[in-house]
């Protein structure tokens, strides 16, 4: 899997950081998402899927391996 | 088409109105009658709630409330529009509506006024919650970093100190106690005043405005009067911190962003408004929920690492923001759940109903403190999701944990039927009192 972030849609709600702190961080100035690890595995991958689901701005997506 | 519903508001202390269950099961989007005569929609399923709240084809304006008297808030608008500097076209709409002898509420839903409110509100009017992109995006970004989980965590020592101080006062006074008046309210007020660089002596400058606006019986004169004092206080606070920065969030905001004084006044009033009544009521309800079935209290007390997860579930189960006051209005025709929502039509989302949707949560009517309530909508969803949610979580977790440690024998001092809760049509649910003893 690979995480894709839409930085324009992001509102800096920080839900991704709560869901998967090893995968996401936020910009110190405007709170925008920073993807620390675009290809998480194991527990981090589970957290990343939660993050995609709870992101209030629908700014995150997951591209599964093999998907264009 | 069936007769439009009126917004169900009769609830029990921890359960939303029972009718919502059947409405969600049969018609998760259904016609809803608004007090201004408008017929819009009520959304009750989790899936459609997310669809509406996450869809940028919906505007925050004109924010028709499904409960209450629209005329009251319209009168507030009418009485303040000159001093707030609205453009001429807004005044013309109000004058025309009044000359026609129509209720002044008609002016607030006039397309000209709606357009000004969402696209070019004069500096110093409306909070973040009433704005659409791109105005919303700019202000939200300016604030987002200050309310990130990491930045909020830095305030933990301050919050814990304020909790310890307040609990010390409660302990000294001895049992019994009303935890709303003696703990929840003073605590959340002191947290927000400390964070914004204000003083305890400033509380009377903002608290009445927030309470007056929430009180469905308040007249427009009282609202206008308390709002004026509140804005004046907010402006003085901004000027104070501009001149003399401190270690507070408002000083950070002044230093780190390009918001002007009018925008800062908006932000300050909004942070005070959203910052204590909600958290105090949620804290009271959480403590009530734990003590009402005291096995819950005992279980969490034995292992307070369970508190954060338990609180997420209580947030879901109780759903504080109950009547969907922040309605959305379609900017264009939008299809939601197979229904055509026409441009200009308002949609109210029942967060409480969505949070009890069996398609989103297993056995949703059961309070299960060990479940992962991930995905609940108690802080809303979409670009207007609660800015202060991580601060609220920090306050709730720290307060419940400290309460359990200091008063392990805490119990309710009155039966559920004797305790006064807020009304079911108040924007924020909660408790007027929480009598306890130990």
UniProtKB/TrEMBL annotation, chain A:
<protein>
    <recommendedName>
        <fullName>Ferredoxin</fullName>
    </recommendedName>
</protein>
<keyword id="KW-0249">Electron transport</keyword>
<dbReference type="Pfam" id="PF13370">
    <property type="entry name" value="Fer4_13"/>
</dbReference>
<keyword id="KW-0408">Iron</keyword>
<dbReference type="InterPro" id="IPR051269">
    <property type="entry name" value="Fe-S_cluster_ET"/>
</dbReference>
<keyword id="KW-0813">Transport</keyword>
<feature type="domain" description="4Fe-4S ferredoxin-type">
    <location>
        <begin position="1"/>
        <end position="29"/>
    </location>
</feature>
<keyword id="KW-0479">Metal-binding</keyword>
<keyword id="KW-0003">3Fe-4S</keyword>
<comment type="function">
    <text>Ferredoxins are iron-sulfur proteins that transfer electrons in a wide variety of metabolic reactions.</text>
</comment>
<dbReference type="InterPro" id="IPR017896">
    <property type="entry name" value="4Fe4S_Fe-S-bd"/>
</dbReference>
<keyword id="KW-0411">Iron-sulfur</keyword>
<dbReference type="InterPro" id="IPR001080">
    <property type="entry name" value="3Fe4S_ferredoxin"/>
</dbReference>
TrEMBL record, chain B:
<dbReference type="Pfam" id="PF00067">
    <property type="entry name" value="p450"/>
</dbReference>
<dbReference type="InterPro" id="IPR017972">
    <property type="entry name" value="Cyt_P450_CS"/>
</dbReference>
<protein>
    <submittedName>
        <fullName>Cytochrome P450</fullName>
    </submittedName>
</protein>
<comment type="similarity">
    <text>Belongs to the cytochrome P450 family.</text>
</comment>
<dbReference type="InterPro" id="IPR036396">
    <property type="entry name" value="Cyt_P450_sf"/>
</dbReference>
<dbReference type="InterPro" id="IPR002397">
    <property type="entry name" value="Cyt_P450_B"/>
</dbReference>
<keyword id="KW-0479">Metal-binding</keyword>
<keyword id="KW-0503">Monooxygenase</keyword>
<keyword id="KW-0349">Heme</keyword>
<dbReference type="InterPro" id="IPR001128">
    <property type="entry name" value="Cyt_P450"/>
</dbReference>
<keyword id="KW-0408">Iron</keyword>
<keyword id="KW-0560">Oxidoreductase</keyword>
